[in-house]
Amino acid sequence: MHSIVIHFGKKYEDWHLVEPFFYKLQSCNELTFYWEEEAPASNPLFLSLVDRMVEQLDRQRIKDWQLIILLNLDDELNRRLRLTTHLSEIRRAVLEPLKDKGFYPSQSTLHLIDKIQRTSNYAPIEEGLKRNWELDHYGYLMKSPGWPIVGNAFIEEEIKQLDEEWGEPIQLQDIILDQPGAEFMEALEMKCERVTTCLAKKIDKKKDYLLLRGKKPSHDEWMTKDQLDIVMEDFEKKIKQIRTLPLTPSLTNFTPSGELSSSLKYHVGIQSEIGDIRLIRQEIVQSSHRERMRGYLELTYFLLTISQHPKLIERLEKGSTSVIQISLETERLETLLNHYFMSLLKAKRQLEDQLLLQNQFQTNRFRDDDFSPYTASSIEKRRDGNHPLLKSTKLNYQFFDQWQDQLYKAETILIDRENELLKNSREAIKKLHVVKRRNDILEEEELMDINDYKQDILQKISVVERDVIHSAPGTSEALSKWKNFVTKAKNQMHFLLQLLPNQRQFLMMSFLIIMILFIPFLQMSGSTESTKVTAYFYGIGLVVTLLVTYIGYYFTRHISHQHIWKFQEKTYEYTLNIYQMQVDAQHRYNDYLNHLFKLFSLRKYLEKLSLIGEEKKEQNLLYRYHLIKLDEFVQMTNRLLHILQINKESFSSEQEIRVPGIKFEKSITENPIYSPFQQLGVQGSNGHGIEVYLGSAIEQYQSAYLNELQQIRIQEDKVYKL
Description:
This protein is α/β, with parallel strands linked by helices. About 55% of the residues lie in helices and about 10% in strands. It contains 17 helices and 11 strands. Keywords: Membrane, Transmembrane, Transmembrane helix.
């Protein structure tokens, strides 16, 4: 069963010294505390308490739970308010809203811390507290509070005046109960009429006081109109009952003051508001600081016991009042607190030593990655896939087709190389992403300061960023330049081939020369003159002319061929340049990827280095936080030992202390080092039986770790006896 403890009013002085005793149950989510002083001043605890409790119970799916309310009777607020008022406020502001929301507790306990000095009849010595106690216990005041009049509550003197109005007690000798005489009944009627009238006048007067007050009364020294009406109605019913035939023998013992007192106790005292709440009172002696602190320890062990064993509260009747006495074994308590103190002290020293190393913000260097081009086989190895036409190739009409076929093959190779370049680039990008995601490895070398390392990386990043900008490859221009070149080259080759003289042109030219030179021979053959010498010279001229023509043809053709072969060589060289352009583009892209990867690596190093630094800072903050807390708890425990007058010097040399490990990321309640019950090596950790005395009955309750608790005595309370 989950336990929720609520405390109304200020925290008890030095209560923080015993709070670590609850950490074990709190870490197991079996116990929750709500303190009124932790609520905002503008928002009292009960205004937000119900919503906070409902949210917790709903979120943690808690169905079975008990409510424990701590109330200090000596608190400043409780000096002005009655216990009945607190009960009324608890029911109105806590229990009823919880019931409306469907989260009503299985059982409710109001635990009273009683530090008040009392007289032999259990009344407080202080006058103001005494009046509140009288109204809670009796429902009226024992004597007048004096002038000015405070409240409109009944006073014992007023109640006894009813007995004076009643007169002598009634004698039933010689009276037949079912048929009394007329004279007797007339006297009885007059008695009843007198006390009823007297009480009615008093109640009317108290109502007038209430009207004069002019505002809504509290439940302290003021009786409400409803309470006054109910008291009057109860009294009239009782008066009507005693004079109704047949008469009862109890009429001889009837007193109006007794009936009014009983009615006031039921409607004005704590019995009017207690309902199903179990009221438990515990006396804590205020005579010394030591006794008060021991009382807090007894209260602590009682709260732990009923949290572990809620059936102990179930054994008490609902709406009952009890007083408890708790016995602790001093020797075991001293051992527990001494062991706890030495564990805290040792843990503090260990953490101080550890923090000295943590203060050095150093780390290892990251292993530098040499990023070579992440591409497939180099495209440079494919540059010999095409060759120019041989000079032995005939320059006929098929030459242009052969040469054009060579251009097509070169273009095909260029496209294939371009696709291969793009493919290799995509593969490089994929590998680059893989490299970016891989874990960085720290070199095992001499440590260096994190801030100096960060400055070094930042300088490298600025240099690499500049290199990345300058090494950006841009888009590939190889194919576009090639296509522009091919268009012009085809036109140029076509033009050169058109200029090439062919054999037909040579034969026609030779034939025309022969025809032109042959005409003189015809003329000479018809002449009578001797032409032998002349024909000889003409023949020589003809041959020379033909020879010169042929030589011109030959040289012209040779020169034309040379232009064609040179242009083809130029085309081949341009193809190689385009190939090299692709190679250069690949090199530039790889160089760009190299710089890009280096930039990514450096930025990742910087990010992880910053993360390492932040983690170290956060870890240092956690270390310092727990170091401060350990020192605080050492001082707290030392103060607790001092208050309880426990000697810690003899214990320190008896045994070696084993310290629980500190979970730095966890809160105080979740760390075993801060709980006295979770220290290593504590004797009797298996627990023992707890004796609980319920009146005259004795019961045994098993405890897992409350070895210091010897017995609990629960008896009927005489201070708030119902």
